[in-house]
Amino acid sequence: METLEVVQDGAVLRVWLNRPEKRNPLSPAVLQELIDVFTGVATDYDVRCVVIGGRGPSFSGGADLRAPTPPRSDEPTPRERRWVSQLGRRMASAVDSCEVPTVARLHGHVVGGAAVLAMACDFRIAAEDTSFWIPEVDLGIPLTWGAVPLLIRECGMARAREAVVMCDRISATDAERWGMAHRVVPAEALDETVDAWASRLAAKPATAMSATTSQFRAYAAVSRLADLTELDGDLLTMGSSSAEFRSAFSRRS
What we know:
alpha/beta; 2-enoyl-CoA Hydratase, Chain A, domain 1; six-stranded mixed sheet; three-stranded mixed sheet; 9 strands
């Protein structure tokens, strides 16, 4: 894979976002690779846990707004454009519904879509230097990728609303208090802690873990009845064509 580093370490599959010079942006190509990896676990019976992290100084700076959309034809159809607009939501769904426990190894910046990726994981271990930031509203676009129900499920309505609407940076300490992180540890202890969690998860009885994972997935599905995230791609397309977005994006460029 061009932008992911995937390493099988016994029963643990380690997935690394691997463009550190660009803060590991989530381009359409990366999103598709993540979908392929996490859905592929369903038929890789040797994998008992997946850990995802980012190379370099940060987990990820989020969606790559400058990445060109790779057309599959000379004249992309409306259906193709919509397919691309849904990649983020499909990525989050693939991670959220992974057949084995998932652990996010977080450090540095966790921005926008990267926060969605992290929240879709079952467990999140963060270094003390980790900073969460969901800036989409201030950029003139809605937060999509199925992120709103994920945040509500993990943090509760009040904290989710604050994170999305106020667009403030959230420290690792506050993230742990809000439920965005399960543990916060010194940076030098991050790998040791993540490895310990992954090893414990991979060693648990397979039948009980499979059944328990199914239980949590079933209850999560109940909470998503009347789920409207299928519309997220359309909302993103609409928001990214607004004058507010063009103005905000030009200021950041």
